Amino acid sequence: MAADAAALTTPIGEDAAAVLAQPSPLASFWAAFRENRGAVFGLAVFGLVIMLALAANVVAPHSPIEQFRDAVRAPPVWEAGGSWRFVLGTDGDGHDMLSRLIFGARVSLFIGLSVMCVSFVIGVTLGLAAAMTGPILDVAITRVMDLILAVPSLVLAVLVVAVLGPSLANTIIAVTIVYLPQYVRLTRASALGELSKDYVTAARVAGVGSFRLAYATVLPNCLAPLIVQAALGVSSAILEAAGLGFLGLGAQPPTPEWGTMLADSREFIRSDPWIVTLPGLAILITVLAINLTGDGLRDALDPKMRRG
User: Fold this and answer.
1) Which burial class, exposed, middle or buried, applies to 46 when counting CB atoms under 10 A from its CB (0-12, 13-18, 19+)?
2) What angle is formed at CA 264 by the lines to CA 258 and CA 268, rounded to 5 degrees?
3) How far is it, in rounded angstroms, from Cα 127 to Cα 142?
4) What average pLDDT does the segment 167-187 reach?
5) Secondary structure (3-state) at 96
6) Is pLDDT above 50 for 1?
7) Which of 182, 194, 211, 169 is nearest to 123 (CA)?
8) Closest-CA residue to 293 (of 88, 111, 109, 43)
9) Which of 28, 101, 258, 270 has its CA at 20 to 30 Å from residue 190's CA atom?
10) How far is Cα of residue 1 from the mean position of the Cα atoms in its chain?
């Protein structure tokens, strides 16, 4: 008993103390991420947009589809004739602009996150299948992805929506198809780079099955570039959906989607420019914030990109 007590009170060695003093992986990631002040600012703005979207029913002063016939194209509060009833004014149909922008954040973020999640899951599955199966399936998958990439993204999205019909769900399907090859090619390239390493060989010698080898052994080591691509893919999907909405092929009125709002207000670009400017600024700020956050993720997850 005395020996055990003495062992418990014996000071630990310097090497063990150094190991215990090391920060956790999450703390190391945040320390590397916050070195990029632009990324921290982008994350804060993106977080604010997410909170506004989630609390739209509480924050928005009016319903996004309610029409105020007595205040059609009312100017914002800083313009002559503006009032605090409609802080950002109203559009050509009498909808409150502030309310539609807040609810539009919910729609646009839903499109971006939905496209990212579906593209990520399907792309990772196809990419791992192409890298870890026989050459026949690999060639088939890569050639299909090359065919999709051969068509300009907006043209392909317009074609898909034209076939399926304009709606919010079909917009998500079209944009998912457009951005799917990015995840497939990135996953395939990352997995091929990992398959030649010793830990994969050791896992195969130990009798690890193909499914477990792919998803439990190889995939975790491929996640860093995929996470960065997923973050940047949200902003790309928002832009693509806004482009479809501007062409009248995305979410249909009165759904408050930023691209659709731009399309509905382009006739007022000279007479009431705020009706066009505000949705464009919402797209610009959100996409810029997501891109800044994605750059910070890239710097934090890739040791070669870290500063210092």
Assistant:
1) buried
2) 115
3) 9
4) 92
5) strand
6) no
7) 182
8) 43
9) 28
10) 59
Q: Are 81 and 107 in contact (CB under 8 A)?
A: no
pTM reported for the whole predicted model = 0.82
Residue 245 contacts residue 258 (beta carbons within 8 Å): yes
Instruction: State which amino acid sits at residue 109.
Output: L
Nearest CA-CA partner of 109 in 241, 225, 229, 230: 241
Q: For residues 24 and 256, what is the distance between their CA atoms, to the nearest angstrom?
A: 43
Cα–Cα dist 279/307, whole Å: 36
CA–CA separation, 198 and 301 (whole Å):
22
Q: Phi and psi of 96, rounded to 5°?
A: -70, 125
Closest by CA to 175, choosing from 191, 153, 196, is: 153
Whether 212 has a pLDDT exceeding 60, the answer reads yes
Cα separation, 127 vs 188, in Å, equals 4
Report the alpha-carbon distance of residue 15 to residue 8 in Å, rounded.
Answer: 17
CA pair distance 193, 183, nearest whole angstrom? 15
